[in-house]
Specification:
The chain is built from six helices and seven strands; from the N terminus they run ααβαβαββαβαββ. It has about 190 residues and is α/β, with parallel strands linked by helices. About 35% of the residues are buried. The chain binds S-adenosylmethionine. The site of S-adenosylmethionine has 18 residues, from helix 3.
């Protein structure tokens, strides 16, 4: 899937404006720190973009955003200016080496089965000084932070170094709502070693 649609442009625009106002403040709060660490015109991949809450924030910050999801429906609701890619993140990613200044994975890693391939693909498509924001919990969604940290270190730190790490929580069934401490999750900014 690409960034062109038969739907009239104005309809995309109206929809994206509604989404931006409706989701205002609902992007991952750590995205703001990531945005501060990036140069203007940075190219950012939102992998497993879902409803696009993070894609829209990145777009508002004027970054060049590529939104990838395994499902077509979330991609259809994103503005035409975002490049959209329908693909699985659980096999080779459809991008060249050193394509991105940053990758945002907010709760997509939770669904990835081939961790080894995933991490090596992320590192391949990230620029050498690129940044990866990864946020995840784990089924059955009551896994403590200590176990999530073990997973992070086991899976990522052979290839990435940790820049910062946060123990976070979200509400049951709602990753957007971090006001409730129902589900432990981890958020980390990483960089290729
Ligand atoms: C919990 S949602 C998170 C959505 C978004 N990142 C956010 O933070 O709002 C997980 C997303 O990952 C996508 N997803 C799950 N498995 C995937 C895969 N193998 N490849 C690409 N996307 C996947 C789902 O379609 C869904 O949109």
């Amino acid at each position: 899937m690409c960034n062109r649609s038969s739907e009239p442009v104005h309809s995309w625009r109206i929809h994206s404006t509604e989404l931006i106002s409706g989701l205002s403040g609902k992007h991952s709060p750590r995205l703001e720190k990531l945005a501060e660490m990036l140069n203007e015109n940075a190219k950012v991949l939102d992998i497993g973009c879902g409803s696009g809450r993070n894609t829209l924030f990145l777009k508002k910050m004027d970054f060049h955003v590529v939104a990838l999801d395994i499902a077509s429906t979330p991609l259809l609701s994103l503005p035409a200016e975002c490049l959209k890619v329908m693909a699985t993140a659980d096999s080779a990613l459809p991008f060249r080496e050193n394509s991105f200044d940053a990758i945002v994975d907010s709760y997509t890693f939770t669904f990835i089965e081939n961790h080894k391939l995933y991490v090596s693909e992320l590192s391949r498509i990230l620029k050498p000084k690129g940044l990866l924001l990864v946020e995840f919990d784990k089924e059955p969604h009551i896994v403590p932070h200590s176990e999530l940290k073990d997973i992070l270190y086991e899976v990522f730190t052979k290839i990435f170094k940790v820049i910062e790490i946060h123990e976070i929580y979200h509400a049951w069934g709602c990753i957007f709502d971090e006001t409730k401490k129902d589900v432990p999750a981890l958020s980390a900014i990483l960089q290729p070693m």
